[in-house]
Amino acid sequence: MKQIALFERGIDPTPLVEMSGDYGQNHYYIKREDMIPFSFGGNKARKAAEFYKEIKKCGADVVMTYGSNSSNHCRVIANMACAMGLDCHIISPQENREILYNTRMVEEFGAVIETCPVTEVSETIDRRVEAYKQEGRNPFFILGGGHGNPGTRACVNTYREIAAYEEQKEICFDYIFHASGTGTTQAGLVSGKLLTEDRKRKCGQTVGEKKIVGISIARSEERGREVVRQSIEEYLGSEYQTLYREEELIFTDAYCMGGYGKYNQDVQKTIEEVMAKDGIPMDSTYVGKAFYGMKRYLEEHQIQGKNILFLHTGGAPLFFDLMDKKWETERRQA
């Protein structure tokens, strides 16, 4: 099996920088997970590094996962499998099969894309896994979005990097905002916060009042909260009962705009603003939508004068899809 040098040596801390633009009456910082140097980066690359260890350990010869045509996760997993010299098989819902840059890249990496109605996804996955086993293969299945303990662990590491930055720069972030999808990103951040604060308390250190806010990109608040909570419980194990508090889990669906992949002109304007002022690309499915949601959340809750950290979880190829759509619309209107 081929090796991936980045995943073998471990991922270095990603840049955390102050933003220059005026996005509201707070002090804004951004953690650039999109700058992880593998397959356009993003937290999906960080999660893939954890799954890489599991794949090597079990000696799998085919990597399977689930995701939509716009999935950053599928792009990164297909790229990782290709780099490892392994086959990759992706199950994808046949609804809304628009060809996007992520779709093209998955195909370029040689992955098999099998589509089915969204109502038949679970059955299709089970059937395909069993078919590979009957062929004498050893499939390794990764849940959509990198859901599961390896994905949560990856984002615990993200929080540890944030905590290390705070200590080094003698700053405390009052809020951390991020796009919340399958739940492991938020589960990892909250778990990392709970574990870090528990360690500090045991050492007699002061603990701040930091809040982690997940901006839902698709799920309802009730469903989203429960999935994140379950992931936290699974990761913390025996420590869950003593460490977890309901108030630590802030998840809002107020900015879903109709569901996955849906956005409005305000989101597009926000993306253009951040690119113009800070040179940072954001997409409309995940990051740009969450950044806009963060701004609205802060305005609606009248939060001012705070240190705000936004976690850029990646999605650069989708930024160019958005630009293509904008240019095509302008061409038609010309």
Largest sheet: 6 strands, mixed
Low-confidence stretches: none
Bin the helical content.
Answer: 40-55%
Terminal Cα span: 53 Å
What's the Cα radius of gyration?
A: 20 Å
Q: Write out the strand line-up for the largest beta sheet, numbering strands in chain order.
A: 1-2-10-7-8-9
Shape: globular
The figure for the number of domains is: 2
Determine the CATH topology of the largest domain. Rossmann fold
Determine the structural class based on helices, strands and strand pairing: alpha/beta
**Overall number of strands:** 10
What are the secondary-structure elements, in order, as H or E?
A: HEEHEHEHEHEHEHEHHEHHEH
Strand content: 15-25%
Structural overview:
The longest helix is centred in the middle third of the chain and has 21 residues, at 149-169. The protein folds into two domains: 5-41 and 149-333, Rossmann fold (3-Layer(aba) Sandwich); 44-146, Rossmann fold (3-Layer(aba) Sandwich). It is built from twelve helices and ten strands. The protein has 334 residues and is α/β, with parallel strands linked by helices. It has a six-stranded mixed beta sheet with strand order 1-2-10-7-8-9, with helices on both faces.
Provide a compact summary of the structure:
The chain has helices at residues 5-9, 43-58, 72-84, 101-108, 121-134, 149-169, 184-202, 221-236, 240-243, 265-278, 287-300, 316-333, and strands at residues 16-18, 27-32, 62-66, 87-93, 112-116, 139-142, 175-180, 211-216, 250-252, 307-312.
Features of the shown structure:
alpha/beta, Rossmann fold, 2 domains, 6-stranded mixed beta sheet, 4-stranded parallel beta sheet, 12 helices, 10 strands
